[in-house]
Design goal:
With 415 residues, the protein is α+β, with helices and mostly antiparallel strands. It contains twelve helices and 17 strands. It has helices at residues 5-19, 32-45, 90-106, 133-139, 144-147, 158-164, 195-199, 238-253, 290-310, 330-344, 357-363, 389-412; strands at 20-21, 24-25, 51-54, 60-64, 68-76, 113-119, 182-190, 203-209, 211-220, 224-225, 259-268, 274-275, 278-287, 314-323, 326-327, 348-352, 368-373. The strands form four sheets. Strands 3, 4, 5, 6, 7, 8, 15, 16 and 17 form a nine-stranded mixed sheet that branches. Strands 11-13-9-14 form a four-stranded antiparallel sheet, with helices on one face. Helix 3 links the parallel strand 5 (68-76) and strand 6 (113-119). Helix 4 packs parallel to helix 11 (357-363) and helix 8 runs antiparallel to helix 9 (290-310). It is elongated. The two termini are 31 Å apart.
Length: 415
């Protein structure tokens, strides 16, 4: 079986036809569409001399045993956000499949090192708000006590949704066993931003992922009739949140590459004839520098308290999730740079603002690197997400070169 990037693109289109509608991809984790996508992927493995299983956190592993137990892991995720794009996550998994095919054919099913492809469970956190669920279980950074009670918009608990898919959240720690013999981890992903397109470049080495602070914020005031309550007598819980929504632009603007986003707002009672008595919001803050990230969090919290006091309200903060900045392995970054130069002639080094499973893998000391391929219009998490097919082919070829280099490096390391 020859290495064929065009086959990977065709399979991505096939997956899109099976799991998307007119609004985009619908492979939200722990849903039937996502399970169908995983079954479809398993069918692609049937022709290969690999072992496949799901670990205790629902991560899917395809393993091609090699002469050495030391393992090169290639992965990403098949799940998507609602109305998502056709490439986000799936590109990395299906590229790993094609590289697995090449290793199996070139070495008659027995490469010098073990090669594994992983489909991480629930990278997006789209349904329950907990990103990197499967990879954090693998890394031992899971937060079971907090996560089990999370609910989706229908009121279904995360714990129940997992159980329906055959996953017991209390057994998450068992997935750490997959770390055994892991020698390197590689991940290909679309950039999801505008930098590569702006520079006219197809590929980039990812230097690391930004740290994240993600909180829920609740302002509490007093419900009142919108017609009979004078403006000066109101304790409107939406007012301090509105001020905070503007203030985060100033907070982020003090730090290079920093971003702050209020992504959701809910008001109660939520009717046109009532002053808002309670306002719930989420705040996502990201930066490459850990000290800057901590400062942004402090400044936002202090600002929220000041704004709440101005409007006779109170405010409470609750951490949803956080992760520190994660730099990737210098030797693998060098290999990635060489692979990009060999295939594309030139590239660039970029940080990653979006979260990726690679960050969790790197946190446990497994040498890790990511490669980005250009995103048209800088758009992702949207049905118009796209990448030129010649750039996709270059990315798949460059990842294969990177995998060869990484496998050789692993094989040359002392036992």
């Amino acid at each position: 079986m020859t290495f064929d990037p065009k086959r990977t693109i065709a399979e991505l289109k096939e997956l899109r036809s099976l799991t998307a509608d007119d609004n985009g991809a619908q492979r939200v984790a722990w849903t039937d569409t996502w399970l169908n996508a995983r079954n479809w992927f398993e069918s692609k493995l049937a022709e290969l001399p690999v072992e496949h299983h799901y670990d205790a956190a629902g991560n899917g592993w395809a393993t091609l045993r090699g002469e050495s137990e030391k393992a090169l892991i290639i992965g990403s995720h098949l799940d998507s956000v609602p109305n998502g794009g056709w490439l986000d996550g799936a590109l990395g998994v299906l590229t790993g499949l094609e590289i697995l095919r090449r290793f199996a054919a070139e070495y008659n099913g027995r490469p010098p090192v073990t090669v594994r492809v992983v489909d991480w469970a629930d990278e997006e956190g789209a349904r329950f708000g907990r990103s990197l669920l499967g990879s954090s279980a693998f890394a031992g950074t899971d937060s079971i006590a907090v996560d089990r009670g999370r609910t989706d918009k229908e009121g279904i608990r995360l714990e129940a949704a997992l159980r329906r898919c055959g996953v017991d959240i209390d057994r998450f720690p068992e997935s750490q066993a997959e770390q055994k013999n892991a020698a390197a981890y590689l991940e290909l992903h679309i950039e999801q931003g505008p930098v590569l397109e702006r520079l006219g470049l197809p590929l980039a080495v990812v230097m690391g992922t930004k740290g994240v602070e993600r909180h829920s914020i609740t302002f509490s005031g007093q419900e009142a009739h919108s017609g009979s309550t004078p403006m000066g007598d109101r304790r409107d819980a939406l007012a301090p949140l509105a001020k905070l929504a503007l203030e985060i632009y100033s907070i982020a603007g003090k730090h290079k590459d920093a971003v702050c986003t209020i992504g959701s707002v809910k008001t109660f009672p939520g009717i046109v004839t009532a002053v808002v008595g309670r306002c719930e919001a989420t705040l996502d803050q990201r930066d490459l520098n850990a000290e800057a990230l901590a400062q942004m969090y402090r400044e936002a919290k202090e600002a929220s308290e000041d704004f709440a006091e101005q409007h006779g309200c109170s405010v409470e903060w609750s951490r949803i999730w956080n992760i520190e900045p994660v730099p990737f392995h210098p030797q693998l970054r060098q290999f990635c740079d060489e692979a990009i130069f060999e295939i594309a002639g030139n590239g660039i080094k970029l940080p990653s603002g979006p979260l990726h499973d690679a960050a969790e893998v790197s946190r446990v000391g497994i040498p890790t690197v990511m490669m980005f391929v250009q995103s048209l219009y800088g758009i992702s998490h949207n049905k118009i997400e796209d990448t030129k097919e010649d750039h996709l082919e270059m990315a798949i070829r460059a990842m294969d070169v990177l995998a060869r280099k990484a496998a050789k490096w692993i094989s040359e390391q002392p036992r």
